[in-house]
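Fold this: Aspartate-semialdehyde dehydrogenase
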Amino acid sequence: MGYKVAIVGATGNVGREMLNILEELEFPVDEMHAVASRKSRGVEVAWGDRTIKCQDIEAFDFSKVDIVLMSAGGDVSRQWSEKIGKAGPIVIDNSSAFRKDPDVPLIVPEVNPDAIKDARKKNIVANPNCSTAQLVVALKPLHDAAKITRAVVSTYQSVSGAGKEGMDELWNQTKAIYGLGDATPKLFPKQIAFNVIPMIGSFRDDGYTDEEAKMWDETHKILDPDIRLTVTCVRVPVFVGHSEAVTLEFDRPISPDEARAILRDAPGVMVIDKQEHDGYITPVDASGEHAVYVSRIRKDHTVENGLSLWVVSDNLRKGAALNAVQIAQLLDETGTIKPSSGYRSITV
């Protein structure tokens, strides 16, 4: 006895990862539906050892499914998520459309699972920004042990955060530069191959970008509104995997050894931290993995009660698809949803 599941945006990077992770985690699925825009109708995507054809979102009957994993962008979510929720299923939305809505829980299961109690208010649960997800997984156990008062974060975000088009642009520019071809930017504001771009999203009046604002807004909603947080988001020529340089200030002294011990016991975290040439994690190491990796934990001598650390995760997994599936697991485990064909409980 399992769930009837629909994935909206099944042809995209995250949609395909959702299909993979549902199978990897053995989430109980009785029926799987791939849904996309009309132009993708009939496109085949892999589901387990078979393929399924995408159905047109305009014609799909959402009342016949239990869970909808939404990964088609903010505009599609704003148009469809509330309609779908009113039809009965719970929508787990990967866009920014509902993250600030007070009636929509914003959840990272390792951090704020109790927020699932609000899932039925609109039948929508929001997935955070990919960079926020890995950040709060690393911060939560430290914050529980010694309250974080301030955080300074610089992100190094892979091009897959901009979708398949972002990955294509890095690949095509790299080939063009080696072949003396045309490397003119099309998606990104500047050349991304062999370069870094110190802005993601759109500029706000205060000089920050909306990507940076997402991180502090979401961290405040998920973890603690009293943490003072400043962020600089940077796009780097990496295909998959986001990295973050994080400096924290606490309300009491906390040593690097204590922080390592705390993080080693934390759910969803792997500590790889040795003062050796390979004693830390890079995006290549994290690609395809579920964990949030923490390395280079060290004292920040410039402030009182300060620590610096390096946080890396696969943004298509923990930053998006994995977190969405973990929310589905949480909905099932707490009995918030029950499959229309019966009830089966699984363990997160």
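The CA atoms of residues 288 and 314 lie 6 Å apart. Residues 342-348 have pLDDT under 50 and may be disordered.
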